[in-house]
Amino acid sequence: MSKEEKKVNRRDFLFTATYTVGAVGVGAVIWPMIDQMNPDKAQKALATTEVDISNIEPGKSITVLWRGKPVFLKRRTQDEIAEARAVNLDDLPDPQKDEDRVKEGKDEWLVMLGVCTHLGCVPLKDKGDFNGWFCPCHGSHYDVSGRIRKGPAPTNMEIPKFEFVDSNTIKIG
Amino acid sequence: MSDHEYTPKSKAGKWFNDRLPLLTLGAHLTDYPTPKNLNYWWTFGGILTFCLMTQIVTGIILAMHYVAHADLAFASIEHIMRDVNYGWLIRYIHSNGASMFFLAVYIHIFRSLFYGSYKSPREVIWIIGLLIYLLMMAAAFMGYVLPWGQMSFWGATVITNLFSAIPLVGDSITTWLWGAYSVDNPTLNRFFSLHYLIPFLILGLVVLHIWALHVPGNNNPVGIDIKKPSKDTVPFHPYITIKDAFALLMFMIIFAGFVFFVPNVLGHSDNYIPANPMVTPAHIVPEWYLLPFYAILRSVPDKLGGVILMFSAIFILFVLPWLDTSKVRSAVFRPLYRQFFWILVIDVLMLGYVGAMPAEGIYLVLARVGTVYYFLHFIVVMPVVGYLEKTDPVPMSISEPVLSGGVKPSLARKINDKV
Fold first, then answer.
1. CB–CB of A134/A157 below 8 Å?
2. Rounded to two decimals, what is the model's pTM?
3. A173, A48 contact by CB (below 8 A)
4. Which of A85, A102, B84, B199 is least surrounded by CB atoms within 10 angstroms?
């Protein structure tokens, strides 16, 4: 083959075009097979839960199920709020103010996913070295604001999207 | 491959064999020249084939009675245990069979490590074997989820959450694996589907594993290359088949001991509590065969770091043939490596033990020491010992130690002279 014949010719164009169309076709077939594994419409339909909080005394908490995951709703005492706010942010692996983890004016209500950010276990309440939660699986300690203090978990317990429908009802999701 | 051409005796056999040479394959497998000095550590290939077939047969039967739904799965397992004729037997064979499968595969892997079976020219056999091992772990994990007890649910939660450690896309991948926002019914359903699929993938890899084995032939306890067929080899049948059959019988006695006398001793009692997404059991432990890796995961105080190290512990085995620099295969002639081999065995057993204990105090210290040594063994000890070690003389042939009762220095050659 001489050098002139090696430059792009009609046949090379046809090969490239065929491979390209073929790749798009294969991708179009594979994507539905991958995406079918994502949460379906029935799962997404469970996206909100309303919770009655009128019976929760200060210092107590309840756990509700939202999207298959436990959510902790804790009505904190003034002492606990003060304790959470006295923490130096430099002591936190994942620095976040307590004020940023609650709704303004509703400081006593801590609403968060009861899921350890390490590997997804449910932490136990009123346990651990920081007066908050302790995960029995791999030993992560959380404080009274649900912030990670010690152990393998990388981040604070997650605050879900929620709102106060009225003074007695919280809507999660 | 056997060198002679095979011709079926009957006319019908010849007619068929000309069109599909299955009889030639059968003759090859029967006559396959095998080193005559194989010891009982070489019988675990046959035992593992038996384990795979046992899991497939009992698994297909269990699937006739099991219901893969979050509301019904736990009850359907109890239905199998109480109502289905011999259901208890089939299920106990299947659940203990998984443990026996791993027991055999660990012996098989350490056999390979001791006698250098992973070394050239058998690297591909080794790598296919590791792929089988990976699929076995995936199948065992998903199978353990199916009863939908507390350990099933929380084991699934912890293991799938490992993927959330991946930066940026971790959470999306985890949700995709779940098919929900937590481990839920869609997760159970797809795990059942994949649990049924994987054994057949393993079966395909086993065919490749044996095919790759039959190209260079078996390694042997002396670890030297042999001519085949020659006076150093015997035909696979009846010599190896009868030895394998005897070892398999011994293995089945132990297997039956577990099934009939202590069927739950290797499981966790918490898995007889139905799954509850609101409460995590106090101590989550995986099945015993995954404990060393679990110990490595927990020894790192960082989420991503722990996950990376745990997967590295498995994937480092894939490059083992290139980390080992020794010219001699068998540890029989490697006085220094032999000691490190046993330290590794003890190290892995210790990691398994601390993996079952809480991750605190002395156990955490032991887990960290064990993890460091595990990686040192492969990254430092294997390459360095291969260079420094003064190996013992290797015999000229298999017949020599077999017939004379030991290695004669006068007849032996030093491997260093050869290369």
1. no
2. 0.89
3. yes
4. A85
CB B351 within 8 A of CB B310: no
B176 closest CB neighbour out of A37, A67, A139: A37
- Tell me the per-residue pLDDT of A57-69, one tens digit each, with 9 for 90 and over: 888 888 998 888 8
Q: What is the spatial distance between Cα B268 and Cα B275, in angstroms, rounded to a whole number?
A: 13
pLDDT tens digits for range A121-155: 899 888 888 888 998 888 889 998 899 988 888 89
- Which residues in chain B have Cβ-Cβ distances shorter than 8 Å to A154? 302-304
pLDDT score, position B1: 43
- Do the Cβ atoms of B180 and A68 come within 8 Å? yes
CB-based contact A40 B186, cutoff 8 Å: yes
Helix, strand or coil for residue A46?
coil
Residue B347 forms beta bridges with which residues? none
- What are residue A148's DSSP bridge partners? A142
Surface-to-core class of residue B86, CB atoms within 10 Å of its CB (0-12 exposed, 13-18 middle, 19+ buried): exposed
pLDDT computed for residue A107 by the predictor? 84
Reading the block at residue A100, the tokens are 């940023």
**A146 torsion bin: left (phi>0), alpha (psi -120 to 50), beta (else):** left
* Look-up of token digits 């394959």: B25
Helix, strand, or coil here: A132?
strand
Does the pLDDT at position B416 exceed 50?
Answer: no
* Interchain contact, A38 vs B175, CB within 8 Å: yes
